[in-house]
Design goal:
Number of strands: 8
Shape: globular
Radius of gyration: 16 Å
Strand content: 15-25%
Strand order of the largest sheet: 1-2-4-3-5-6-7-8
CATH class: Alpha Beta
Helix content: 25-40%
CATH superfamily: Alpha/Beta hydrolase fold, catalytic domain
CATH architecture: 3-Layer(aba) Sandwich
Number of helices: 6
Mean pLDDT: 91
CATH topology: Rossmann fold
Order of helices and strands: EEEHEHHEHEEHEH
Length: 225
């Protein structure tokens, strides 16, 4: 059951200037927000990802603001559809997550909220690099079916508590997450969702992801309020 009256939630489309591009985003802010979660999509996904929007809805109902954004411009998306190159350009994706965090920090209405990052697929690596580069702002990270191993040298510098959620039927990604966890510089946990594959499409799997993310972010973001 929702804990937030939906009519009181403010949702709007925003443009986020990062370097020489403007990225499209959806910013949702519940009353008396307790924290702000920035979503980093991966593998050709964007702010309309149904899976990430479902998770974001659960977080908003728990009193957390969310920013879902496209990490690529429409022109870049068109190129990526042809080549699948940019979705694996982790430095580019990370720079844009960092730019969004910096933009939010400068917003008078949002700048004092503790920030969390939720990363999916290659977006998980971008989220972890952002946490390493902005340790004062990023207080928690959650990865869903992510590739944290692609963050490479940034992992030892990640001090934010990190939750790695992996499907039980995704053995290769489990192995990569375990290797990455061993390198993380702060508190971390791997949570394996039994019976779930990479996209968590099985009945109840995505709901479990959302519940785990909500618990993690409330523990490490809301406590700072």
């Amino acid at each position: 059951m929702s804990t937030q009256p939906r009519q009181a939630v403010q949702e709007r489309e925003v443009g986020i200037r990062v370097g020489d591009v403007t990225l499209a985003g959806t910013l949702t802010v519940p009353p008396a927000a307790r924290g702000l979660v920035v979503f980093a999509h991966g593998s050709g996904s964007g702010r309309f990802s149904p899976r990430n929007r479902a998770v974001a809805g659960v977080l908003v109902d728990a009193g957390l603001a969310t920013l879902l954004m496209d990490l690529l411009t429409p022109e870049e998306e068109a190129e990526d559809m042809r080549t699948a190159r940019l979705r694996f350009d982790i430095p580019l994706l990370a720079a844009r997550v960092i730019g969004a965090i910096d933009s939010l920090a400068a917003n008078p209405a949002l700048g004092d909220l503790p920030v969390g990052c939720f990363g999916a697929s290659t977006g998980a690596a971008a989220a972890l690099i952002a946490a390493a580069e902005r340790p004062e702002q990023v207080h928690a990270v959650v990865s869903r079916g992510g590739r944290p191993d692609l963050a490479e040298d940034a992992l030892p510098r990640v001090k934010a508590p990190t939750l790695l959620i992996v499907g039980g039927r995704d053995p290769e990604v489990i192995r990569l997450n375990q290797q990455a966890q061993a390198l993380l510089g702060g508190e971390s946990r791997i949570e394996i969702v039994p019976g779930a594959t990479h996209l968590f499409e099985e009945p109840g799997a995505l709901e479990r992801v959302a519940a785990l993310a909500r618990e993690w972010f409330l523990r490490y973001l809301a406590r700072d309020r």
